[in-house]
């Protein structure tokens, strides 16, 4: 039967007391949050914050907030171990950049869908309308609407040139 990482009767020290090489008291503030089977959890928190500071923070908080505080400290400590300069801020910044890139890709994809729907709508309306007679004058002003659409659809639009294959390459 476990009680905050310590076995009843055997009094196995919590991860904090084991690392600090001290006797784990029954009312140890670390025991509920740093069980003996997760020593790396306290080790990283201790390395970044120090046992005394963690003890003070936990003592100052109401018991119902301590678990969340420990989770936050563990996350920040692990981030600081990976990136000593920026810590969590570096991770958040990296994630925000990824979100920005993905939002841009989504906007481009949505614009491409709208472009394709408009192209499809104009193509289907061309097929439903009978062609207008073309005057004998060869200037482009006298082309029928369907002919001018055909010419414009055959030329590559600026939108298509910007999109290319890069939209889907990651």
TrEMBL record:
Matches recorded under Pfam families: LOB
Superkingdom classification of source: Eukaryota
Stretches with biased composition (Polar residues): 120-129
InterPro entries: LOB
Region of interest (Disordered), residue spans: 119-155
PANTHER family hit by this protein: LOB DOMAIN-CONTAINING PROTEIN 3 (PTHR31301:SF58), LOB DOMAIN-CONTAINING PROTEIN 4-RELATED (PTHR31301)
This protein's name: LOB domain-containing protein
Organism: Crotalaria pallida
């Amino acid at each position: 039967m476990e009680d905050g990482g310590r076995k009843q009767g055997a009094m196995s020290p919590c991860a904090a007391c084991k690392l600090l090489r001290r006797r784990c008291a029954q009312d140890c503030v670390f025991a509920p949050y740093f069980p003996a089977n997760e020593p790396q959890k306290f080790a990283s928190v201790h390395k970044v914050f120090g046992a005394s500071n963690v003890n003070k923070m936990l003592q100052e908080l109401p018991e119902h907030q301590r678990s969340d505080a420990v989770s936050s400290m563990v996350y920040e400590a692990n981030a600081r171990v990976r990136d000593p300069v920026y810590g969590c801020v570096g991770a958040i910044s990296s994630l925000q950049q990824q979100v920005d890139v993905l939002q841009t890709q989504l906007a481009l994809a949505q614009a491409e869908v709208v472009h394709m729907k408009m192209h499809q709508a104009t193509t289907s309306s061309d097929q439903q309308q009978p062609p207008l007679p073309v005057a004998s004058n060869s200037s482009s002003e006298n082309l029928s609407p369907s002919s001018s659409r055909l010419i414009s659809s055959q030329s590559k639009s600026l939108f298509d040139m910007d999109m290319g294959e890069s939209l889907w390459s990651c």
